[in-house]
Amino acid sequence: MLNQIIFGYFAVTMISLALIVITRKNIMHSIVYMLILFFHIAGLYLFLNAEFLAAIQIIVYAGAIMVLFLFVIMLLNLREELRKSRFAITWPIGAIFVVLSAVMIIISVFGNRFANVGNVKISDIEKVGHTVAVGKLLFVEYLFPFEVASLILLVAIVGAIVLAKKEIK
Amino acid sequence: MELLWEISIIVIKIVVVVSVVMFHVAYATYFERKVIGRMQMRMGPKEVGPLGILQPVADGIKSFFKEDIIPLNSDKPVFYLAPVISIMAAMSALAVIPFFDGFIISNINLGILFILAMSSLGAYGIVLAGWASNSKYAFLGGLRSAAQVISYEVSLGLSLVGVMLLAGSFNLNDIVEAQSSSVFGFYAIPQILGFFVFIVSAVAETNRPPFDLPEAESELVAGYFAEYSGFRFALFMAAEYIGMIIMSSLAVLCFLGGWTVPYYVLYLFPFLGAVPGVVWFILKLYACIFFYYWIRATLPRFRYDQLMALGWKLLIPLSLLNILITGIAKLII
Amino acid sequence: MQVPDLIPVVPEILMTILVLSLLVIDLFIKQKEYIAVYTVVGSLLVIISVFYCTGVTFKGMFVADSYSIFFKMIFLINVIFAAIISVEYLKKRASLYGEYYVLLVFATIGMMIMASAGNLIVLYLGLELMALSTYVLAGIIRTDGLSTEAAVKYFLLGAFSSAILLYGISLLYGITGSLDIREIGLYIAKEGIINNKLLLLGLVFFITSFGFKIAAAPFHMWTPDVYHGAPTSITAFMSVGPKAAAFAIFGRVFMIVFPALSGSWVNLLIPIAILTMAVGNIVALAQTNIKRMLAYSSIAHAGYALLGIIAASNEGLSAMMNYMLIYLFMNVGAFILVIMLNNQAKVGDSIHDYRGLSKSNPLAAFLMLIIMFSLTGIPPTAGFMGKLYLFMAVVNAGYGWLAVVAVIFSAISAFYYLRIVMFMFMNESIEEVKLSLVDVNGLLLIIVVFMVLFIGVNPQPFVELARLAIL
Question: Which of the residue ranges A143-152, C136-145, C421-430 would you say has the lowest mean pLDDT?
């Protein structure tokens, strides 16, 4: 019962926070709410006994990515944006599509069924520690995707340099 | 009942830690002014109380009763929020620091990661303060700080990976124990590269001189908190000093053996074993904080591009090299 | 610690070594043309290695079977062509020469991983690797506003489609408890959950995101702008490579994960295919810019190739693969001529620049004629054979009327392809252009046209190769 309540709190809060984030006119306020949202996601990870993921969530998303967002937003002319209307003129069309997709998804959710539960239990993870479990999984089971992900990061670095480097004559 | 007992123990621990740390923060300012004064052949504060010992109290009272000025056109909610984020991020990190054997508010497995996470959140306080103040100087200070903190966080985190590899844990208790049973008794020697990177990044991460670009008074008045006054200003100052204490504690715990003394020192001077661990911890901590003041008094401020170049082109490659060497060494041994 | 079997991954490893060494060589080399040469030679070596490295490794995550080999062959030929045609083109435009080739090869690695993906995570990562590289490549000419616009549009819409794909993957994982493509297929068949609504929703997400990558209508909106704005060499590269890669995962996912649901997805894909052919062919009629016209033609060809998936049979799949190979040659051929004209500073992308080309450059105009015939699907070119096999597969699957529709749209396409031919042969030129066919571009054009005719006359070996490669 307690589990359901906690999960319910996280789920409802996260969805409302996400809504708040996208409806704020001031991007700075959006970012602050986004920060709170990240903390809730981290909390949900903790709730699932995934403490390493929770810490990484905070360090990477809250600590690095959002700060970069802030950095970029500060370089933009925000005061100008504040005077413009909040949504583009076509927003009713977008809203119609959102509602339709939401209806479609909600209808489909009733077809939900759960697959066979995997054979790793939380107690097994607790025994070795979550960090060790994640490490083993990443470097043994999912070694290939892990290496591909490293290539993606390299592409991102090269691409950023290509797009941002000074023009050399 | 059991739960109540546990909670009350934790509350007592929190009260003890916070009051001790706040006391240290107050006297760290006094200590700083005295040390730097001596280094520059001055006296430092000496009027309030004997030897100026009551100076921090006077400062505290002053900032408490000062008028709280909020700039026109500032973003008020964010303006209020920023110092709170700063101090909260700094204070939460205290929760996972073991001050001596067994004394820790929350002994979690991810101690180091938690501290890194909290120290990275400190950047929000600074950036949001800079933005919300609606002032050029604060804004520039905020921008500088955002770039600086992100850059140095990377090398700070990477410099600790070597320690994590050697100890095989993120838990600060385990790291200290692993050090006392290692060959040298502390990790500063085998992790000399990591230690160097850590020191430099820690100074930059806490925005202390010679990396205090975000608050460089000669260019930016006071940087991100130029528009803050009174108690909010005091919160920022306290956050900075708590940040210093946390970074110093991390250095003590990860590289200098925490509350333990190397076994060979004990072998040579057996009577040192009678000294309680907390004393060793505090002595090492003071040494680190003294180091902060020492370099502040000695080194000129970096230029901004030099700061970035140092972080990205020297410290990060060095820390990666350190990880590589440590990994290979660990594989061989 | 046991080391996984690395033999099947050797081509990807070789490509990665190639790309990393390119990054380093770029620092030291002054004659940047050698980078292109190095890329071409490296990719040729990898093509050879592709045929010898087969097997399943990393616990089924990476599958190097004959299906993936066929596609990898397409990708590698594509990157070789792109590298060759870029040499002249880039000299005048981009300053970051080495990075250009690095990103080309990275995109190719992504495609190769996609073709070999036996796991949805690997599939997604391969797709991201390919997509990220092509986003940057589309915007590599930073001084050109159109190029930047293309990159931003491509990036934003591509990110959406990736997100939709991830949502689909997460639904599939939730329902079946696995990410392994084969296991999911077996699970669905075993449990008999083909009417599960959530599973169908996942299927819709897969179709949406794959449809975006192959530029099928109504997910094609990005295509004309991106193909128009991107550097022409990149347009040539990405109108084949990413499309073929998307078809590779399309085939693999739908034939292995969702075969039990084929009734549902065929019904979804038929309107998409018809709409794609209609939009591609009809809107192309109104285009006066050759790059935009080829973009719409590329949409139309995606519609034809979709017929192979709709057939939901091995025959259809091999026809689709065969068509992709043929499309590679004819599309690159068309773009080579566009690039050759682009390289002449005087002329632009307008189709009117092709007026009277036969007077000044009879051979080039004749080669273009063959390419245009092939794109239309007129025998004895390869385009005809490719379409023939596709239509046969659809007819055999019981959708004869769909083949009729496709033939009608092919007939419509003749109008805009042959308009170029008409301009070249029947109009007087406004400006004299002199094209030389003795440089690399010209030689490549001749090779490509030879291949188009060769496959058209003698399609058997290629069809056999594709038929061997069925799943």
Answer: C421-430
Structure tokens at C182: 């084969």
Looking at residue C220, what DSSP letter applies?
-
**Residue B73: how many CB atoms within 10 A of its CB?**
9
Helices C314-343, C290-310: axis angle to 10 degrees equals: 170
- Mutation for testing the B interface, residue in A37, A59, A127 having most B CBs under 10 Å: A59
C396: which 2 tokens?
């055999």
C52: left (phi over 0), alpha (psi -120 to 50) or beta: alpha
Domain of residue A10, residue span: 1-82
Q: How close is the nearest chain A Cα to the Cα of B37, in Å? A: 36
Asked if A106 reaches chain C (Cβ–Cβ under 8 Å), the answer is no
Q: Does A51 contact B at CB distance below 8 Å?
A: yes
Q: Are residues A128 and A62 in the same domain?
A: no
Q: Do A167 and C58 touch (CB under 8 A)?
A: no
pLDDT given at position B214: 67
Q: What secondary structure does DSSP assign to A104-133, as a single string?
A: HHHHHHTT----PPPS--HHHHHHH-HHHH
Touch between chain B and chain C (3+ CB pairs, < 8 Å)? no
Mean pLDDT computed over C61-90: 90
Contact call for C135 and A159, based on CB within 8 A: yes
Give the span between the Cα atoms of B7 and A36, in whole angstroms.
26
What is the pLDDT at residue B236? 84
User: How would residue C302 be classed by pLDDT, with cut points 50, 70 and 90?
Assistant: very high
Q: Is A122 exposed, middle or buried (0-12, 13-18, 19+ CB in 10 A)?
A: exposed
Looking at the structure of chain A, the number of domains it has is 2
ipTM value greater than 0.85 = yes
For residue B216, what pLDDT is reported?
A: 65
Q: Is residue A108 part of a domain?
A: no
Q: Is residue A29 part of a domain?
A: yes
A6 lies in the same domain as A60 = yes
- The pLDDT of residue A169 is above 80: no
Average pLDDT over residues C354-374: 86
